[in-house]
Amino acid sequence: MSDGQLAQPIARSPIAPAPPVTVLAGWEVSGRRASAITEAAGAADGPGLTITDYTPMAKVQLRAPVSGQAATAVGVRFGRAARDPAGTLVVGSGPGEWLLLAAPGQAPELLSRLASIAAQAPGEHATWVDLTHGRALIRLTGSSAVKVLARICGVDLSDEITPDGAAFRTSVASVATDIIRDDLNGALSYLLHCERSSGDYLFSSLLRAGADYGIEIDGFRLPPAHAPL
Q: Helices H, strands E: what count in the chain?
């Protein structure tokens, strides 16, 4: 670094990255690769169980009247999650509340998009805020994910009750958590979203709960454009 040149700031998750540590999209992340991951496909291989710190993902929250114009424009109802044409995962996380998840650095674009939606409903009171650095996000993937969560969460996670695309808020290891079932290429997968201050505890709790199932840490990777997060 030349004299007078300032280093670019590095964002850090509340979850300490497993070595080796690298920097990706301005975030300090783990460069570890789990053996349960097939590199060519980028998906869980068979019964392998992996956990990834997804905190670098952009996270934006929208609140608006549950049956208003903004809600109609968002197009995802409470308790469900779906991707829009841009690849953003839109989660109906509460009555009149949505969580938008996208690739790192996309928060300004998400905020701009929500501002445009709100402008089309001038008579409604809507608020939107960037939660990227204030929240933690974890992905748990593999055929044993349900068994792991069953140890620290009381919700029925059967396909009949919580199929792919289900979203709900509950207690996981005594932490208030948004759970989004978001299967990857046919592999069972969950996103867990919580307050930043609880992120490391929740991650550690999932590791302990998954120890008997051979859980492995897999480092964060940038999702391809318009691909599952």
A: 4, 16
Are 97 and 163 within one domain?
no
Range of the domain at 76: 58-130
Angle between helices 145-152 and 199-209 (to 10 degrees): 120
Phi-psi map region of 210: left, alpha, beta (phi>0 left; psi -120 to 50 alpha): alpha
- The amino acid that residue 188 corresponds to is L
Instruction: Please list the residues that pair with 60 across neighbouring strands.
Output: 100, 130
Give tens-digit pLDDT for 215-229. 999 999 998 765 566
Residue 53 near residue 29, CB atoms below 8 Å: yes
User: Residue 8 domain-assigned?
Assistant: no
**How is residue 197 annotated by DSSP?**
G
Task: Note whether 174 and 187 are same-domain residues.
Answer: yes
Q: What's the rounded Cα separation, in Å, for the pair 229 and 224?
A: 8
Domain count, the chain: 2
Q: Which residues are paired to 116 by β-bridges?
A: none
For the record, the structure tokens of 104 come out as 């790192």
On whether both 138 and 153 belong to a single domain, the answer is yes
Residues 157 and 126 placed together within one structural domain of the fold: no
- Predicted confidence band at 7 (pLDDT cuts at 50, 70, 90)? low
